[in-house]
Amino acid sequence: MIIRISYNLSQKVVQPLNNITPTSTIAGVEKELRSISGIVKKKGREILNNYPITPPQFIALQWLLEDGDLTIGELSNKINLAFSTTTDLIDRMEKNNLVERVRDSKDRRVVRIHLLEKGTSIIHEVIQKRQEYLGEVLENVPEDKVNSLYSILNLLHENMKEVEKKSTSR
Length: 170
Prior knowledge:
Keywords: DNA-binding, Transcription, Transcription regulation
GO molecular function, one term: DNA-binding transcription factor activity
CATH architecture of the largest domain: Orthogonal Bundle
Distance between the termini: 39 Å
Radius of gyration: 20 Å
InterPro entries: ArsR-like_HTH, HTH_MarR-typ, WH-like_DNA-bd_sf, WH_DNA-bd_sf
Order of helices and strands: HHEHHEEHH
Mean pLDDT: 89
CATH topology of the largest domain: Arc Repressor Mutant, subunit A
Protein name: MarR family transcriptional regulator
Structural class: mainly alpha
Strand order of the largest sheet: 1-3-2
CATH superfamily of the largest domain: Winged helix-like DNA-binding domain superfamily/Winged helix DNA-binding domain
């Protein structure tokens, strides 16, 4: 069975193909995303087994790599953990010389979490291993299909952020 999602960007409409209702298409997309998410999570944990970090630490280190120094509150919001849990997470990463707490140069009352060289090295290695795995998965997929997949995933991500933004502003 072939399912195609076509987007009318002005109306954001999911159109059925071969008399498949939008509801069943959406259910299929949700199921595939759930399955893919589980596989990626499992493979990610396998890769992390070779490194001295936990999955939540990996997520925190990724945010610090991407966004630079963050306060515990900012990091807590990004990784969706309670402030106290994030503090414990940072304490453990600080003991392992992955991050350090530094005073903000503009406001000495503010403490930011700074990624250290060891943390940067580990996160780069882990991301490289994850990308190698994905490269292996996509090895026999034509480049135009990979580019289409990337575009659709990007669109999905942007739409999800927009819906999230609307739901939190209510």
